[in-house]
Amino acid sequence: MRITLKKKKLKTRKYSLYIEYYKYLGIDNNGTQKHYRKTEYLSKYLIIEPKNEIERIKNRENLCFAQEVLKYRMKQLDELTLLMLRKNLGKLNLKDIHKKIEKEMIIKFNLH
Questions:
Q1: pTM of the model
Q2: How many domains, the chain?
């Protein structure tokens, strides 16, 4: 699983910040490729063209907050991965461990 911080351009001259959990690339029932991903919107926004120092400071604060959340989520994923590996080492293959980690992440972060 790959976790990245992304932004989406809004009509209100702002970017919405969100975290994307990219699981894997798979094949659906029709035989076409499908990307499996989930998003966590942070309710933090960046002004695209800040007009004054206050807006620039607010942009920096929101970006720093989003980066901290990203670091925290990555740390949680690492801890969960280690926990799953310790618990199931020798019992499961890597593919099964990966699926279990994904299920735990979905439960932990409410990524339905």
A1: 0.69
A2: 1
